[in-house]
Amino acid sequence: MPAAVDLAFETTLMVRDTCLCLHAQRAARALARRFDIALKPAGISSGQFSLLMSLNRPEPPTLGSVAALLAMDRTTLTANLKPLERRSLVETAPDPADRRARRLRLTPAGRAVLGGAVPIWRRLHAEIEAALSDPDQLRADLNRLSEFGRQDGLAG
Fold first, then answer.
1. Overall average pLDDT of the 10-21 stretch
2. Cα dihedral angle (144, 148, 149, 150), rounded to 10 degrees?
């Protein structure tokens, strides 16, 4: 085991004040909390909203394409799908073209939950955007940052 390194407290303060990862994590947790509270009457969390919304497509997507969209590994996505499947909001079926792949589909109950959640999301999203100086720039910057995970082979 390496010897303990004596780090100056100033280093801690510098990281606290400048670390992009820390600031992104804090912002993500705060946003998720606000959306979790707002979406509670719809019976879903912010993460479940994003997952259900990612399935709202003309054709059922594959597990791999949803994992890539959400920057999630397949194992985590599968774990997140289980409670939605238990509630009959999502169905998983083998891909007819490739039996090794799985397709994900919103059920009518899933569409109903999502339909009830969208007005809640719209209201809160508009409120949050109104508090930002340039939401489009923030979105662009966050998308740029999310590319780092793809470049490292971590997402998709």
1. 96
2. 80
Q: Which of 40, 56, 64 is nearest to 107 (CA)?
A: 56
User: What confidence category does residue 54 fall into, taking pLDDT thresholds of 50, 70 and 90?
Assistant: very high
Look up the pTM and report it. 0.87
Helix and strand counts by DSSP (H, E) for the chain: 7, 2
The structure tokens 């339909």 sit at 115
Burial 24-46, CB ≥16 within 10 A → b, else e: eeeeeeeeeeebeebbeebebbb
Query: In sequence order, which residues have a C-beta less than 8 Å from that of residue 150 and are 6 or more positions away?
Result: 71, 156
Identity of the amino acid at 155? A
Q: What is the full DSSP assignment across 72-96?
A: --HHHHHHHHHHHHHTTSEEEEEET
Run of H or E residues at 101: strand 98-106
pLDDT digits (tens, 9 = 90+) for 117-149: 999 999 999 999 999 999 999 999 999 998 886
Q: What's the mean pLDDT in 110-123?
A: 98
